[in-house]
Amino acid sequence: NRSITLDSRPFGAPNTDNFLIKNQKPPSPLQGQVLLRSVYLSLDPYMRGRMNDTKSYAEPIALGETMVGATVCRIEISLNDNFQEGDWVLAFSGWQDYALSDGKDLLKIPPNLANPSFALGVLGMPGLTAYMGLLDIGQPKTGETVVVAAATGAVGSLVGQIAKLKGCTVIGIAGSEEKCAYAVDQLGFDHCLNHKSDNLAQQLEQVCTKGIDVYFENVGGRVFDVVMPLLNPCARIPLCGLISQYNATELPEGPDRMSLLMGSILIKRIKMQGFIVFDDYSHRYNEFSQAMTLWLSESKIKYREHLIEGLDNTVDAFIGLLEGKNFGKLVVRLGPD
Ligand code: NDP
């Protein structure tokens, strides 16, 4: 059983020295337990936060412990009546090949699902995040303008497509020309701008001819700076993530913009609301799943996975996620189906 543990806490961007690969015998299940064999591992930005020893909505990963993460697994051995060998399940068994479970934390994945790994993305946590953040907090209305950054990623690509289904004008912001072309040509966004270009503020102003009604916040930092002046009165900001800050070790340079932000929120009556998808929206999973399954079957939603092969490439892929190297939902294939 190979596993990747947290060996030291990163200061700034994580590097390979923060992780350790261990190799041990696979554990043996006791009565009532199952042995899980991980086939797909989800890599997600929140894992960076769990590497810090700071108070957050979830406990930090302890040094020496296996890195956490959602997985799609096969039941390899079952000593639990609720599961049969060969069943597909959604688990939270982390960065390792094998794990034990008593079954209580497992969700069965329908055997006829064409792509079991979709349970980690479009039909799983990132999908629920996009759906609930946009529809429940963002409340987009037909004809409004929705802006979303990390626009081709797991969450952002779905936010933009759902907003299009609701009749909005959608503007994506992404980290390369290739990603932007994909957002417009394949995902149907109206525009997509490269946040690495020098004149992002002017470009955004040019395409947001009617201002911004919903800004789905995935990244923070420089992107938020250019969005803020264009927000319309009564704009909504689902505050989902701030990935541009996850590796930051100090406050950004320049003047303190807190009073500017608070002034804008006040004068424009902006609603900005953070959310943690598991805590706030787990109970609405079925509603989301029905809608998303239908949209997928009707080809109204497109979904792109960035598949990495093997545990050996997991650390580099995760480091790359925080640098924009992924193009689509980042998933590692740990073993054969
Ligand atoms: P993505 O698949 O979008 O991958 C991350 C992307 O973020 C990168 O590809 C890159 O895209 C962008 N990025 C990375 N670094 C920077 C940077 N410095 N500045 C701007 N963009 C950057 O990840 P997810 O869709 O899984 O997550 C998107 C956001 O949603 C994250 O902030 C995450 O923490 C948050 N989230 C929050 C949840 C909640 O419950 N609140 C649940 C799930 C996710 P590009 O190259 O286009 O810039």
UniProtKB/TrEMBL annotation:
Pfam families per the UniProt record, alphabetical: ADH_N_2, ADH_zinc_N
What residue stretch is flagged as signal peptide? Answer: none
Superkingdom of origin organism: Bacteria
Q: What UniProt keywords are attached to this protein's entry? A: Oxidoreductase
The answer to whether keyword Mitochondrion applies is no
Enoyl reductase (ER) domain residues are 12-332
Q: Which residues cross the membrane?
A: none
Query: What is a GO molecular function of this protein?
Result: oxidoreductase activity, acting on the CH-CH group of donors, NAD or NADP as acceptor
Protein name per Swiss-Prot or TrEMBL: Enoyl reductase (ER) domain-containing protein
Q: Write down the species.
A: Pseudoalteromonas denitrificans DSM 6059
